[in-house]
Design a protein that fits this description.
Layout: H1 5-24, H2 36-41, H3 47-59, H4 64-67, H5 69-77, H6 92-107, E1 116-120, H7 126-134, E2 139-143, H8 146-159, E3 164-167, E4 179-183, H9 191-200, E5 207-214, H10 229-237, E6 243-245, H11 246-249, H12 253-259, E7 264-270
Parallel strand pairs: 1-2, 1-4, 2-3, 4-5
Antiparallel strand pairs: 5-7, 6-7
Length: 273
């Protein structure tokens, strides 16, 4: 994310227009993940990070890697991603989505089946597709702007995922979600939008998981500077829900520490039993 707000707005506009083009032009879907706007905005996991995710999952003998291998490969084939030698049969982004879903299940063991889940920020629908491959949520609601939602709806349809709800407005649900997740999305939103999500969804969800990035030097548009996020998210966004950082109590500690870059990268959890 650039420090130049005008550049950021231009990038966001380019991404949204590209999502719209993919939905309206069927010929674009088979290779949409190679498009510049998609690779810059959502299919942007580095080769190094993807490799570390893959190695971690392989070294811990995660049972998914055999049980769901063919299904994950079919999901990853959608959109024609770039694959890198050494990350098994997956793209770097899919390796990270599998890793992220494994992290969620580690922290919320037995919670995802039968749960009402909300995801804030959908990317192209990749994380939702992996979660539905390994779990059976009672409901799954995705919040984002209309253009990415259109792409995610198309991707999930091609992936065979049904029953998701797609919302482009921040409306308080009739009953709280059991789990709220957001994968590097909330930190990119403006302050008023973050607060709206906090007031209507986050503070009412008994469990949650946020992947959060702090910009180098602390960009006031995106929240506090490095090292302050935990306290800020806990007090301002969650109204004193108690946070447990993933790297504080999981075997992801070494991975999380090694993959931090100039941006501070954190996984926040609350409601862990």
């Amino acid at each position: 994310m650039s420090n130049n707000w005008e550049v950021d707005r231009s990038m966001v506009h380019f991404f949204r227009e590209t999502c719209l083009d993919i939905v309206n032009e069927p010929k674009l879907f088979p290779a949409f993940r190679s498009l510049a706007a998609i690779r810059a905005a959502v299919d942007n996991v580095t080769e190094a990070e993807g490799y570390k995710c893959w190695r971690f999952l392989s070294n811990t003998k995660n049972p998914w890697m055999k049980k769901y291998a063919e299904h994950f490969q079919r999901l990853d084939a959608l959109g024609g991603p770039k694959r890198v030698p050494g990350i098994g049969p997956y793209s770097a982004t899919m390796a990270r989505y599998i890793f992220r879903a494994a992290d969620l299940l580690f922290h919320f063991q037995g919670c995802l089946d039968g749960c009402k889940i909300a995801e804030i920020g959908c990317g192209y629908g990749g994380l939702a597709s992996v979660i539905h491959a390994v779990c059976q949520p009672r409901s799954y609601t995705i919040y984002d702007t209309p253009e990415p939602l259109g792409l995610a709806k198309l991707f999930l349809k091609r992936a065979g995922v049904t029953g998701c709800h797609f919302l482009s407005t921040i409306a308080k649900p009739k009953a709280p979600y059991d789990l709220c997740i957001s994968d590097y999305a909330l930190n990119e939103l403006g302050e008023s939008t973050k607060q709206e999500y906090a007031a209507t969804i986050l503070r009412h969800s008994p469990r949650g998981a946020l992947a959060w990035a702090d910009p180098p030097g602390g960009d006031p548009r995106l929240a506090p500077g490095p090292g302050n996020s935990r306290q800020w998210v806990e007090q301002v966004l969650l109204n004193n829900h108690k946070i447990v950082q993933g790297c504080d109590r999981s075997f992801f500690q070494e991975f999380n520490r090694k993959t931090e870059s100039a941006w501070g990268s954190y996984h926040f959890y609350w409601g862990i039993q």
